[in-house]
Specification:
The complex is a heterodimer of chains A (437) and B (250).
Chain A lengths: L2 H12 L6 H14 L15 H4 L4 E2 L14 E2 L12 E6 L2 E2 L11 E5 H7 L18 H9 L3 E6 L7 E7 L5 E3 L2 E6 L4 E11 L5 E10 L4 E8 L6 E10 L4 E8 L4 E10 L5 E10 L4 E10 L5 E10 L4 E10 L7 E10 L5 E10 L5 E9 L3 H8 L5 H17 L5 H13 L4 H5 L3
Parallel strand pairs in A: 1-8, 3-7, 6-9, 7-10, 8-11, 9-11, 10-12, 11-13, 12-14, 13-15, 14-16, 15-17, 16-18, 17-19, 18-20, 19-21, 20-22
Antiparallel strand pairs in A: 2-10, 3-4, 5-6
Helix pairs in contact in A: 2-5, 6-7
Chain B lengths: L1 E10 L2 E11 L4 E5 L6 H9 L4 E10 L2 E2 L5 H6 L2 E4 L6 E5 H15 L7 H14 L10 E2 L5 H15 L3 E5 L7 H13 L6 E6 L12 E6 L2 E6 L2 H9 L11
Parallel strand pairs in B: 3-10, 3-11, 6-9, 9-10
Antiparallel strand pairs in B: 1-2, 1-4, 4-5, 7-8, 11-12
Helix pairs in contact in B: 5-6
Classes of the chains: A alpha/beta (437), B alpha/beta (250).
Chain lengths: 437, 250
């Protein structure tokens, strides 16, 4: 047993049991049995966790005084996604809601701390803690279930027009780990826009193992963003589970703009006819950042549809991985899926790996996939140069164009603008690029 | 305006141009004709500054400046324009953005201020009307989803906005129906001026009925093998390219 595993086991033994004890116990035992993922594991072959495994971790403290003094020292704070007056903002520090936080009163939105629900009505949320079908590949999600302290449970019962921003602040040392947990429960016909924004407090290098579960009931609509803009020393492991009922629609954006090591997974199940998922990933490798994104989408019912659009850019000595898999279960006829991943290398020392996969167990399905990685297209570049544009401008313009498919899909225009700005600052020739917004 | 002497070039290790000599004066329209694979497009691309085309010998000057020493963008700003045979689609880069950036790059090089946004849009609309192009053009990506004919019209539109001193049009006539050919020809003719020159690269004589050249050259095997006035184009149309193949350099 390595140091990390031993330390997580110690944390497990020291914690006070709660209403989820049986589920947590099961998750923890499975996690301990499987151990940390290694390069031998199918979806971990590009991400080496040996330095994490060699480390002992203590539980990160919940909100403390220093962490609640506003955003002045937060890395990524410059990336204010939505004007606070235009959004419902909920702040979590190391996964814990602030004890004295004011809970906004919004029609159709119930905001609860998971800790409170577990005391008052644990049955109502138990279903959100079932292990994911691919738990063996997502052991960090198991660890989150075992060790999370608190989190938020959002129940959406109507259409909410104001975006809900969940500001995840991580605060601590590299010897600490936090396990933030968020549950989004969209009731039949309800709709909302939810933006999860991950930032670091100061130079925080805490290991953050976050987990989000989105349940969309019949005809519910959710537009969900997860934006990673933690500091360059941070390790971030993030799992997202999406469960979709009949006629529900989910638009999901994953944007990697920060962190040292980022592992982002999405596991979606289209469980009833008419469920539709549109997922977008915008993965930016900068300096020595390592971004590993894994999507698994299961079509479990007939007439379900999914689109996955990923754009990866790698500069300097960064590495970006996009692994996506579509599974069509037996009987899920007329499933319609499309995977498109394009990678753009901006440095000879950067690396992009893409792997679209299909696993089809049904007849009469429509599944398309494509992946390309390369440098800027020389024909396009020559065309722009031949019109008199200088080389920097021409290149920046092409990089921007490469990202346009994902950016233009974002309905929250203020968030889109902020994301564009942050993105541009991480690309070569950012001054030039800025002029072409 | 343009003087090419003994120009040789290769593409991917293969010799394509093999000693081209050509002199184009201000106010003139020259047509370069020739069979497929004779090097017409290569000549156009080399003159515009395509980097992966390697010039192995010879010289080319543009208004007395060493053209081959200038990068593509500098040639464009100095007033050279290439109308592409296959204009590339660039989704995500707006047509108007490109035109504006191109015009401003040229103005900046000439020490002129950037174009006023309002005046620019008025200019574009006027030129679009002249080229009979639809409003959809304004919101679309560069050549994105354009038909072959629309792409060629867009090339001529860019030319009209940029008002180059020397326009090299590479098979701008190919793939056009007769109406589009007339529109494109009117566009090219509107640019004819004692201070400008046009080089038309074409496979067929058809375009030359509308844009009448001062001189016609036949390119074959990477050299100009015959030159003459507009009657040469008619003769080629009747007798075919075999007639001039193998002829000594004119």
């Amino acid at each position: 047993m390595n140091a990390a595993l031993r330390s997580f086991e110690t944390q497990w033994r020291e914690r006070v049991p709660d209403a989820l004890q049986a589920v947590r116990e099961q998750a923890m035992q499975r996690f301990l049995k499987l151990g940390l993922p290694s390069l031998r594991d199918e979806t971990w072959r590009y991400t080496d966790l040996r330095s994490v495994a060699a480390q002992s971790f203590a539980a990160a403290a919940c909100a403390d005084g220093g962490a609640t003094d506003g955003g002045a020292t937060q890395s990524g704070a410059g990336l204010l996604l939505v004007d606070p007056s235009q959004a419902i903002t909920l702040k979590l520090v190391n996964g814990c809601p602030l004890p004295d936080a004011e809970i906004p009163l919004i029609n159709g939105l119930e905001i609860n701390n998971i800790g409170d629900i577990l005391k008052l009505d644990p049955k109502s949320v138990r279903r959100f803690f079932e292990p994911p079908s691919d738990a063996d590949q997502r052991r960090w999600a198991l660890l989150n279930t075992a060790l999370f302290i608190d989190g938020l449970y959002l129940r959406i019962t109507q259409s909410i027009s104001t975006p809900i921003v969940i500001l995840h602040v991580s605060s601590g040392e590299s010897t600490q780990a936090a396990h933030p947990r968020l549950i989004i429960d969209a009731q039949p016909g309800a709709s909302a826009v939810i933006i999860e924004h991950h930032v670091s407090q100061g130079e925080s290098a805490l290991l953050s193992n976050s987990n989000t579960h989105i349940a969309l009931a019949r005809d519910a609509q959710v537009e969900h963003y997860r934006i990673y803009s933690t500091g360059s020393g941070a390790t971030h492991l993030d799992s997202l589970d999406i469960r979709q009922a009949k006629g529900s629609r989910c638009r999901q954006f994953t944007v990697a703009l920060g962190g040292g090591l980022v592992r982002s997974s999405l596991e979606a199940q289209l469980q009833e006819p008419g469920a539709n998922l549109d997922s977008y990933a915008l993965l930016v490798g900068h300096q020595d950042r390592h971004v590993d994104c894994v999507n698994i989408v299961t079509h479990a019912a007939p007439d379900t549809s999914s689109r996955q659009t990923a754009r990866a850019i790698a500069s300097d000595v960064s590495r970006v991985i996009f692994n996506s898999k579509v599974i069509v279960n037996e009987g899920a006829k007329n499933a319609d899926s499309k995977q498109s991943c394009r990678g753009l290398l901006l440095s000879p020392n950067a690396e992009i790996d893409t792997r679209p996969q299909l696993e089809i167990h049904a007849d009469e399905v429509k599944c398309a996939h494509g992946a390309t990685t390369g440098r800027l297209d020389p024909d396009m570049l020559f065309y722009l140069l031949s019109r008199g544009l200088d080389r920097d401008t021409a290149q920046s313009l092409l990089v921007y164009a490469f990202l346009a498919d994902v950016l233009t899909g974002m309905s929250v225009t203020s968030a889109r603008g902020a994301i564009e700005n942050a993105l541009i600052s991480q690309l070569p020739d950012s001054q030039t690029l800025r002029k072409f917004r | 305006m343009l003087e090419i002497s003994d120009l040789a070039a290769r593409v991917a290790g293969k010799e394509i141009l093999n000693g081209v000599n050509l002199k184009v004066n201000a106010g003139e329209v020259h047509a370069i004709m020739g069979p497929n694979g004779s090097g017409k497009s290569t000549l156009a691309q080399v003159l515009a500054g395509r980097e992966d085309y390697e010039v192995t010998r010879g010289t080319a000057t543009f208004e007395g400046r060493d053209l081959l020493a200038m990068p593509a963008e500098e040639r464009a700003r100095a007033g050279l324009f290439l109308g592409f045979q296959y204009p590339v689609e660039i989704p995500g880069v707006n047509n108007v953005y490109l035109l504006k950036a191109a015009l401003n790059a040229k103005r900046k090089a000439a020490g002129e201020p950037e174009v006023d946004a309002y005046e620019f849009l008025a200019l574009i609309r006027q030129k679009m009307k002249f080229m009979q192009m639809s409003e959809a053009f304004l919101t679309r990506g560069v050549n994105e989803g354009f038909s072959g004919g629309e792409k060629k019209r867009n090339e001529v539109l860019q030319m009209l906005v940029l008002e180059p001193k020397l326009a090299i049009l590479d098979e701008t006539d190919s793939g056009l129906d007769i109406d589009a050919l007339k529109v494109v020809s009117t566009g090219v003719n509107s640019l004819r001026d004692p201070k400008r020159a046009v080089v038309l690269v074409t496979h067929y004589q058809r375009l030359l009925d509308y844009v009448v050249p001062d001189q016609v050259h036949v390119l074959s095997g990477g050299r100009i093998v015959k030159s003459g006035d507009k009657s040469l184009a008619h003769e080629l149309e009747q007798r075919g390219y075999d007639w001039v193949m193998g002829t000594k350099v004119a």
